[in-house]
Amino acid sequence: MKISELIQDLQPLQVIGDEEKEITGIAFDSRKVEQGYLFVAQCGTSVDGHQFIQSCIDKGAAAIVCERVEGFEAGSATVIQVASSDKALGLLASRWYGCPSRRLTLVGVTGTNGKTTIATLLYQLVRKFGKKAGLLSTVVNYVGEEAVPATHTTPDALELNRLLAQMAERGCEYAFMEVSSHAIAQERIAGLDFDGALFTNLTRDHLDYHKTFDNYRDTKKRLFDSLKKEAFALTNKDDKNGMVMVQNCKAHVYTYSTRALADFKGIILEEGLDGMLLMINNKEVMVRLVGRFNLQNLLCIYGAAVCLGFDKDETLRILSLLQPVNGRFEAIHSSKGWTAVVDYAHTPDAVDNVIRTINEIRKGKLITVVGCGGNRDKGKRPQMAQIAKQGSDQLILTSDNPRDENPLDILKDMAAGLTEDELRQTLIIEDRAAAIQTACTLAGDKDVILIAGKGHEDYQIIRGVKHHFDDHEEVMKYI
Fold first, then answer.
1. Contact by Cβ (8 Å): 67, 82
2. Integer Cα distance of 50 and 42 in angstroms
3. 3-class DSSP state for residue 283?
4. Alpha carbons 286 and 223: distance in angstroms, whole number
5. Which of 394, 385, 407, 472 is nearest to 433 (CA)?
6. How big is the CA angle at 224 (ends 248 and 216), to the nearest 5 degrees?
């Protein structure tokens, strides 16, 4: 593709050199640059790509997209200066792959909790309607029926557009994707044409990156601000930030709620560890998911399907068939009468939600096993421990993904949220496998063990090294 075709969406500050050169590839990692490539120099959070521009030119890069034009000898390379290299990469990636999001009905899901469940079950739902679809999620990506491993909640702009292009080429009509706050802030979704956006909820998360809750909220809101008027926005009226998200939104706005008047309203009629009987818009439906938070997720799924034009009654019927997503309130029953629930809850609000859900339906004790990730928001650690202790009969604090931190330092931060009396009643077991085994040993008939934090993840990162570890497997080993 010629440079002039590739940069037509960029609005560059200046172009130095020949715009009619052919580009053979795009890279933002200097190690992947080859002869004839266009290199995008991003400022980055830890490494500035501008320092690698000269080496890319020396390797034969045909064009450079950058924010600063000093510090290198361009030679025959065309230099395109832009205000934001991050945004430019998104726009370039979309154009390079033929604007794939315009060939699909693309729906983005954002919020703190529930993104994976909603995106995954929407993907399952439209496929049960006989439609071809794609999925971009934290757990796994799907191009039609083909599973593609997921490394981030939202992939980088090049990978994202490559996957969307594959979906379009294989005849997919729909694509559902989780949209993380990092992806919005880093412009990974720049150039994408969303036909719908869904908001789940907003609670404390990623403040190590966004610094303040207001920054975090405003970043999420950008997805809705960018919607075209033909699109739809579906927001959670139960969340205090739900209507904030759709302020100034040009798209058609719809709401869902478990408490207030809304376009899509639902209540729980009956509930157990294996499912719920719901009333959604005055119609009863039995589902295999559990908890008020999942009622909100299901209302969002139902509302999105209706907004996409699917039949209301058939959508309810299919909702009753949908299975919980791996690692999201995943119940494992023991022959001794206790049940373990493996859940991805890794924020104070998510832990609170899952504990409240279990406490509403349990008949025995609740034993909670929980940890916090390293190199992440430290402020939520004492909150997580406090919430878990208040809602549980027995609390076991353990490691999650320590990453580069000392696991004992993380546990000390968590323990700071407990009183001396609460600490005496709490077990602190650094080894997560031992913590899970201890919980299983302590559990009796009708007790529930909540194992929170990792959900679908099958690894632990300890001192920077990735080890295989799966909460589900550890429970099954004990059983």
1. yes
2. 7
3. strand
4. 33
5. 472
6. 105
Tell me the pLDDT tens digit for each residue of 205-220: 555 555 687 888 999 9
Predicted local distance difference test score (pLDDT) of residue 204? 56
- Within the chain, which residues score under 50 in pLDDT? none
**Would you say how long the chain is, in residues?**
479
Residue 227 CA to chain centroid, in angstroms? 19
Taking phi over 0 as left and psi of -120 to 50 as alpha, with beta for the rest, 223 belongs to alpha
Q: What is the predicted pLDDT for the residue at 137?
A: 92
At 373, list the tokens. 């990730």
Q: What is the pLDDT of residue 325?
A: 83
The Cα 441–Cα 437 span in angstroms is 6
Rounded to whole angstroms, the maximal C-alpha distance in the chain is 75
Of the candidates 327, 373, 403, 347, the one whose C-alpha atom is nearest the C-alpha of residue 150 is 327
Report the SS3 class of residue 83: coil
pTM of structure:
0.84
Q: How does strand 37-40 pair with strand 366-370?
A: unpaired
Map out the domains of the chain with their CATH numbers.
3-95 (3.40.1390.10), 98-319 (3.40.1190.10), 330-478 (3.90.190.20)
Q: Which pLDDT score is estimated for 40?
A: 98
Alpha carbon distance 22, 2 (integer Å): 4
Residue 198 φ then ψ, to 5°: -120, 135
User: pLDDT digit string (tens) for 377-425?
Assistant: 899 999 999 999 999 999 999 999 999 999 999 999 999 999 999 999 9
